[in-house]
Design brief:
Structural class: mainly alpha
Largest sheet: none
Order of helices and strands: HHHHHHHHHHHHHH
Helix content: over 70%
Number of helices: 14
Shape: globular
Distance between the termini: 45 Å
Number of strands: 0
Radius of gyration: 21 Å
């Protein structure tokens, strides 16, 4: 039950935090193209989640087990696929675990950069003579994070989740006031942007919408899991609502701030105003509280797959847990210090991590599991090939854009 609360609250925090990046996504596509493409990507992401959950249910029915996680589903799909592919089951399971860990690892790097940039804005306003590089703020963030990540039990993370959601809700509400307080004319921003900026749009929207890592744990712990899928199931209703809200915030946020739109819209709020300052403080606190929740899944996978079988004894286990968590935090801070700016790291996470985990893997799993029944004219195969190609295009183009941005930083 506690795990279900954590996963659902974590996803709630994710939605509210990542939605702040949507205006910047629209900046790289234009109002009209951004609106249409956001709906299309929302449908695509929802479909991929459907593929993964349906595959998990099919495998559970065949193997007579109550539930499976993401990596178990991916590996088992190859076990039940064509004979020539069954030997790759273990490798696919490992790949899924690695993808999950890397996605969460890179995701919390975004959090650190966001905290650093927001804190820098506030300090510069409150103490104009006090100047520090953004990288210093990222490094300073490591100290409280090293302490907070030593909390290991899920039940003690629930209050952090609650506080994060409260801070985000209040901060998001005030942000909406600034977005809708002044609405410029539609002609003030372009309807379409150049194609060379489209990869950044795709990566940002995928980053904002994709939540496959927490969907399956939530579905597995539902009292009535049969209500999760279907035309009017929990998934479609939830994702439909998310797409509409994301589209509205992206549209009006970009319309409000135009080409000045930052990677997170809270960075656009006037730092000289007390109300805007309160938003920045609230969202920084919310992101800080969410960091520990986001690391839980990745640390759990690392511990169970790598360290647990090799570490015995209470003292050694305790030391290994502390060392693992410290190294994880230090790694995320190092990446944040190297990257420095939000835009390239959001593009990187969306294009490389989430396109692989949220689009490529579900398409491959669905193809392998149902290889003997690909449908009329093999429509399932061609549809999944399209998903794989889309994922790889987003990956390669987003990676190139990220590398270019990092070199020019």
């Amino acid at each position: 039950m506690t795990a279900s609360i954590i996963h659902s609250n974590t996803e709630s925090s994710n939605i509210q935090h990542r939605i702040l990046a949507m205006p910047h996504a629209f900046k790289n596509a234009g109002l009209l193209l951004g609106s249409v493409a956001t709906i299309a990507i929302g449908i695509l992401c929802t479909h991929c989640i459907h593929l993964l959950v349906s595959a998990s249910r099919d495998i559970c029915r065949r193997s007579k087990v109550p539930s499976l996680g993401l990596a178990e589903t991916c590996g088992a799909a190859f076990d039940y696929g064509p004979k020539c592919l069954r030997k790759y089951s273990g490798a696919v399971k490992v790949f899924a675990d690695i993808s999950l860990v890397v996605t969460y690892f890179m995701g919390v790097c975004v959090y650190i950069v966001f905290i650093a940039e927001s804190t820098e804005q506030l300090v510069k306003h409150w103490f104009p003579e006090f100047e520090l590089d953004t990288r210093i703020y990222s490094a300073i963030t490591m100290i409280p994070l090293l302490l907070s990540t030593q909390i290991r039990q899920l039940k003690y993370l629930v209050p952090f989740s609650f506080l994060a959601n409260i801070c985000l809700l209040v901060g998001f509400g005030i942000t909406l006031y600034y977005v809708f307080n002044e609405t410029p004319d539609l002609s003030s921003v372009p309807l379409f942007e150049s194609l060379e900026r489209l990869p950044t749009f795709l990566s940002t929207v995928i980053f904002a919408m994709e939540g496959v890592g927490v969907v399956m744990p939530v579905e597995n712990t539902m009292k009535h899991p049969q209500r999760f899928l279907g035309w009017f199931g929990v998934l479609n209703v939830a994702m439909g609502t998310v797409v509409v809200i994301y589209g509205v915030i992206g549209f009006f946020g970009f319309l409000r701030f135009g080409e000045e739109t930052e990677a997170s819209i809270t960075l656009n709020l006037p730092v000289s105003e007390s109300l805007a300052q309160s938003v920045k403080v609230l969202v920084v606190l919310a992101v800080f509280f969410t960091y520990n929740l986001q690391t839980y899944v990745a640390l759990d996978v690392i511990w169970k797959r790598i360290l647990s079988p090799r570490v015995q004894g209470k003292v050694k286990i305790n030391f290994a847990q502390i060392a693992m968590r410290c190294l994880f935090v230090a790694g995320t801070v190092i990446i944040a210090v190297v990257v420095r700016n939000l835009e390239p790291i959001i593009t990187l996470v969306g294009s490389v991590c989430l396109s692989t985990l949220g689009i490529l893997l579900p398409a491959v799993v669905d193809t392998v599991l149902h290889f003997d029944k690909l449908g009329f004219l093999k429509w399932r195969l061609f549809k999944n090939i399209f998903l794989c190609v889309f994922s790889l295009v987003a990956l390669v183009s987003g990676l190139m854009i990220s590398i270019h941005s990092l070199i020019n930083n």
